Amino acid sequence: MTSSAFVRQLSGNMGLEKRVSIWERLNLDLPLLFALAVLVGFGLMVLYSATDGNQQELRRQSIFIAVAFLVMFIVAQIDVRVMRRWAPLMYLFSLGLLVAVLFIGSSTNGAQRWLDLPGLPRFQPSEIMKIVLPLTLAAYFSRRAMPPRFKHIFWALVLLALPAVLIAIEPDLGTALLIAVSGIFVLLLAGISWKLVSSALGAGILSIPALWIFYLQEYQKMRILTFLNPENDPLGAGWNIIQSKTAIGSGGLYGKGWLNGVQSRLDFLPEGQTDFIVAVLAEEFGLSGMLFLLMLYLVVIGRGLYIAAVSSDMFTRLLAGSITLTFFVYVFVNIGMVSGILPVVGVPLPLVSLGGTSIVTLMLGFGILMSIHSHGKTAFRYVD
Amino acid sequence: MLDDITLKDHNLERRIFLSRLLIGGLIAGLLIAFLIIRLVYLQVYQHEYYSTVSDNNRIYSQAIVPTRGLIYDRNGVLLADNKPSYNLTVIRENVPDLDASLGVIQNLIELSAEDIEEFTQRQRRRNVPFSSVPVAFNLSEDEIARLAVNQFRLPGFQVEAQLVRDYPLGAPVAHAIGYLSSITEQELRQVNAENYAGTHQFGKTGVERFYEQILHGQVGYQIVEKNARGQIMNVLDRNDPVPGEDLVLHLDSELQLAAWEALGDMRGGVVALDVNTGGVLAMVSKPAFDPNLFVGGISQREYTALNDPVRTPLFNRALGKYSPGSTVKPFVGLAGLDTGVRNREYEIEDPGYFHLPGDSRRYHDWTWWVNESGHQRVNLAKAIYQSCDIYFWDMAVDMGIDRMSQFMGRFGFGRNTSVDISQASAGTLPSREWKRENLGQPWYPGETLNSAIGQGYTEATPLQLATATMVMANKGQWHQPIMLRQVGLEGEAIQHQSAIPDVNLNNPDDWNYIHQAMQDVVHKGDGGYRNNGSAYPYIAMLEQMPYHMAGKSGTAQVVGIAADEFDRNAEVAERYRDHALFIAFAPVENPQIALAVFIEHGEGGSSVAGPIAKQLLDVYLLDEFGQLKQEYMSESALQQLSSLQQAAEEGEQL
User: Fold this and answer.
1) A-interface mutation test, from B7, B9, B21, B231, most A Cβ less than 10 A away
2) From the list A81, A235, A282, which residue is nearest B43 (CB)?
3) How many CB atoms are located within 10 Å of the residue A115 CB?
4) Contacts of residue A291 in chain B, CB cutoff 8 Å?
5) What's the rounded Cα separation, in Å, for the pair A173 and A55?
6) What is the average per-residue pLDDT within B242-267?
7) Neighbours of B153 (CB within 10 A)
8) Which of A349, B101, B254, B566 is most deeply packed, by most CB within 10 A?
9) Which among B4, B28, B42 is the nearest to A245, CB-wise?
10) Do B57 and A309 touch (CB under 8 A)?
11) Which of A193, A248, A303, A312 to mutate to test binding with chain B, by most B CBs within 10 Å of its CB?
């Protein structure tokens, strides 16, 4: 029985005259696609204001967005379960790139994060790892009985720690943490016992002083101290956060109107096009604009969680869940940092901030979600 | 694929996963709610606060300092100008290494440790990033050039221009015009502080002080939007300043400079008044100071020099109180005639000394110190032109101090009659009442004698003497001395209504009698010897004068010397030497200018102050050919002139 024939029969049995839509044929998830498109469009609008109407930047960003959607579409056509077999290889390959970047990577601002390979556009191997690590861990756990045993958790942590440490060495602590978080989500979703989670949490808290003394760089300590008291150095380290809070607060309920955000247009707001773009949005569109933005993110996250929930097998469940929750972490960390409830870490606002590679990576993730949803349903029917 | 999952409990796994996913979703939802709470807090509860912060960020109200009015003399000569001055300023954010840069600058321009300390203070006080702070003021062209050449070593530093006061004539006009210097807290309290937002200088003395508010103008404002680097992006509102008014003074800078030159190395003061208006034609005090020193901030060394206790260059001698000496005699004499105490025919026999009735104490005439003689037979006119003390003492005893004092007061003695001269003084006009009130003592008859010859308690400023002389020249008609002629170069001349009643005499012809006596001081060549009290040997005897000058000398004792201690051959220490004074007006027939010359420790009123007075009258009255300017001629002289011209023309025609 072909899948379409099965669906037709199933629909017929349930008394529903449901036809396979064009979106399903294209393996695209309409709610997700719609939310993402609105999000990206809204983002471009804010970016237009944040760049002071810089056509060139806008065109570049639009091209990246187009490429990102293409990547998403292509990925959506591939049955993700194929990737499970390739996961170990992809992991080793990505790890190799991370090692390579330490030796032959090009450095900007004292950090060696980029890889310039002949014939390829300049890219950050850590971006690839953002997808590959959850994929690998999901593949790892999907082959084992759940809840995972301690041994498996240990090896999973090793798999997680290797890329995280390599990225932290670059140094790119923010990305390292986020990649670790995406791996930890896989562990949590796989059913790791709460006892273990709480003891790990306790150990983490206890290790903070040691981290502070031995690991954190001066500028990172500065960021944290500034977060705790920005008024300490209002013209220096505290400037960013004071100005972004001012931008958000002065926006009020309905904002100052598109292109009327004085904080960014008069250059008071640093990084207004990248990490702090949400302050521009909050200033120009006010609380209503922020609620609209959060609503779009909630739609994306909710849809992602739904796809994970209805997914057929453990591999796709873990993968979809991790991708979705990691996406949420990006949103939360960025907005939390800009609104002053989290210290400043270099996390862009997903799908809105200027910057091509992060959008491509994110859309690749959503392509995987769509693939899981589209191909997973059929798989469910096969398995049953 | 199937063999991989055969050992697993699908339902259990799915249950675990779903519960974990649910927890994850719930936590995510909670955190999103937390974000929303945060946003509501910032955007609703703290909206007003952050709106203010945002506006403060970008909106600045800048005071626009009005351009200060210029000051001209009566002929349009610029006395106080505004010229650009150059300051070195820095924007801290653009300097990679401030200490290194300051080191470089110290090699290029004069910059003391104090200057750097003051700069650091200013730097600390600024509250806007990317705002510029001055480092050094009033750079010379050399310094600007050196800084320009080294600009590449000094990122963030730049030379900025601003307008500062400039006095092109310098010291000679310093006391008349005054000067500008840094405004003090106290001065700021006297004025509307809002109008002085951004103004750093204030008129300290002279015209600059009296007309401070008119010269200053009205401050303007602009509301600007600045970006984070302090650049003005947008002017939201602008309220233009109203520039200060230009002032035209009565001052004649030619006469002023002539007086300055005439004083030479001597210390003294000169005041000349326009008899027709009371306008101050010249007001000189020497030594003086360069008023430009104060504008840019005076150094300690320069200021110490200005506080020399003997030279006192900051003290305005034109407004200083001195014993007027014999210069009061024309006025006291007029009092004698007008009160009827004396008439023109009355004569005395002067043996060279005087004693009060019933008192054996001798009062010596000044001639006694010269040759132990008197003036022999003396009437009032002779008593004036030969400056006979005995005649005046004799008259004063009959007149009494109060009548004398009352009459002198009508000429402005003992009060400040000036309109707009900020530090003018009232001098001292003693009377019984004055002494009782000020010293708590009764009046002694001997003091009346002193007052009659302008000594003792009597004190007057050169300005007061010039004013009294002007009233004398005007035959009693009053004009109050005034610096300001008009507001604006195109403005209308100010007609100041005198608040002082004119002096009306019982017999108006007495004016002519005194004028003649004063003219004799200069022109009557009797006796032929220098010590007869007249100024003739020092003035009219030396050259033919194209006009008649009226005057009176005064040689005021600085210390009293008893008759038996007096040694006429001894060299007197400079600080004990007499002050020399001379009052004058001219031409006698049609008075135009009245003046007073005071020379500190100058010794000879006639010999030292007199020639200076004459020289200044010449400067004012004579044309380039040494002839009296036609506009200053009396009607009869003009008629004479025109008939002469007519005759000459007729002669040519013949």
Assistant:
1) B21
2) A282
3) 19
4) 36, 39
5) 33
6) 94
7) 13
8) A349
9) B42
10) no
11) A248
Whether residues B450 and B570 share a domain: the answer is yes
When scoring A84, A140, A246, A382 by the number of chain B Cβ atoms within 10 A, the one with the most, hence best to mutate, is: A246
Q: How far is B59 from chain A (nearest CA, A)?
A: 10
Q: Which amino acid is at A173?
A: L
B476-490: per-residue pLDDT in tens? 999 999 999 999 988
Q: Which residues of B touch A267 (CB under 8 A)?
A: 227-229
Q: Does A197 touch chain B (CB under 8 A)?
A: no
Domain ranges in chain A? 38-77+232-384, 86-216
Both B516 and B388 in one domain: the answer is: yes
Chain B segment 232-271 residues within 8 A of A by beta carbon are 233
Query: CB–CB of B546/B626 below 8 Å?
Result: yes
Give me B147's structure tokens. Answer: 């800084």
pLDDT in tens, B46-70: 998 888 888 877 777 778 889 999 9
Q: What is the CATH number of the domain that holds B117?
A: 3.30.1390
User: Helices marked H in chain A — which ranges?
Assistant: 3-14, 22-25, 30-50, 55-77, 81-104, 125-142, 150-169, 173-189, 194-206, 208-210, 218-228, 239-251, 262-265, 277-310, 314-338, 356-383
User: B57 and A246: CB-CB below 8 Å?
Assistant: yes
Name the nearest CA neighbour of B631 among B599, B592, B584. Answer: B592
- How many folded domains does chain B comprise? 2
**pLDDT tens digits, B24-33:** 999 999 999 9
Under 8 Å CB-to-CB from B442, ≥6 apart: which residues?
Answer: B432, B435, B436
- The ranges of chain A with pLDDT < 50 are 1, 11-17, 379-384
SS3 B477: coil
- Position of tokens 């001597």? B266
Residue B3 pLDDT > 50: no
A292 CB neighbours in chain B (<8 A) are: none
Which helix (H) or strand (E) is B143 found in, with range? helix B141-149
Residue B153 sits in the same domain as residue B297? no
Contact A314 B17 (CB under 8 A): yes
pLDDT value, residue B653: 66
Residue-wise pLDDT tens digits, A298-333: 999 999 999 999 988 889 999 999 999 999 999 999
Q: Are residues B113 and B258 in the same domain?
A: no
Task: Identify whether B226 is part of a domain.
Answer: no
The pLDDT value given to residue A16? 47
Chain B residues within 8 A of A143 when measuring between CB atoms: 4
Asked, for residue B361, whether it belongs to a domain, the answer is yes
Concerning whether B326 is annotated as a catalytic residue, the answer is: yes
| In-domain check, residue B473 | yes
Chain A residue at shortest CA distance from B52: A250
Tell me the pLDDT band of B360, cut-offs 50, 70 and 90: confident
State residue A383's pLDDT score. Answer: 40
Q: pLDDT tens digits for B408-460? A: 999 999 999 999 998 899 999 999 999 999 999 999 988 999 999 999 999 99
Is the complex ipTM more than 0.85? yes
Which residue range forms the structural domain that includes residue B121? 85-162
Same domain, B269 and B382: yes
Residue B639 lies in a domain: no
B257 and B158 share a domain? no
The phi and psi torsions of B274 (rounded to 5 degrees) equal: -80, 115
Q: Supply the DSSP symbol for B382.
A: H
Contact present, B408 and B400 (Cβ < 8 Å): no
Residues of B in contact with A188 (CB under 8 A): 20, 24
Tokens coding B191: 């004025």
User: Quick check: A258 and A289 in contact, CB under 8 A?
Assistant: no
Alpha helices in B524-634 (DSSP H): 610-621
Angle at B395 (CA atoms; ends B389, B397), nearest 5 degrees:
105
